């Protein structure tokens, strides 16, 4: 059983920053690649960023490249997403997800006002 708890979302003006965190428990966190996904109203869930199990390789969607940074702390079972220069189109519920599993957290709402 895996438990994922996302936090750090909120309301921010365009150009602002937020830092999301995902606390994982229940299995060997350090052996799983992790991803951040988001889902806006009326749209499909999409991947935003991913990081391998050691934190040595990352992936970013083109829409967030150079603005978002994914990181992880395996000692704390934590994966984070630093989001800078936020845009209204970043508004969505953000989820963390271990690659290759069916586990999802409850998500955290990010709202960016123009």
Condensed summary:
Helix content is 0%, strand content 50%.
Tell me what you see in this structure.
- The chain has 114 residues and is mainly β.
- The protein contains no helices and ten strands.
- 0% of the residues lie in helices and 50% in strands.
- The radius of gyration is 13 Å and the shape is globular.
Structural descriptors:
114 residues, mainly beta, 4-stranded antiparallel sheet, globular
Draw up the topology in text.
Blueprint: E1 3-7, E2 10-13, E3 18-25, E4 34-39, E5 46-51, E6 58-60, E7 68-73, E8 78-83, E9 92-98, E10 108-113
Parallel strand pairs: 2-10
Antiparallel strand pairs: 1-3, 3-8, 4-5, 4-9, 5-6, 7-8, 9-10
The chain-level mean pLDDT equals: 95
Would you report the number of β strands? Answer: 10
Order of helices and strands: EEEEEEEEEE
**Please, how many helices?**
0
| Low-pLDDT residue intervals, each spanning 5 or more residues | none
Helix content: under 10%
Strand content: over 45%
Characterize the main sheet: 6 strands, mixed
Radius of gyration: 13 Å
Strand order of the largest sheet: 2-10-9-4-5-6
Distance between the first and last residues' Cα: 40 Å
Gross morphology is globular
- Which structural class is indicated by helix and strand composition? mainly beta
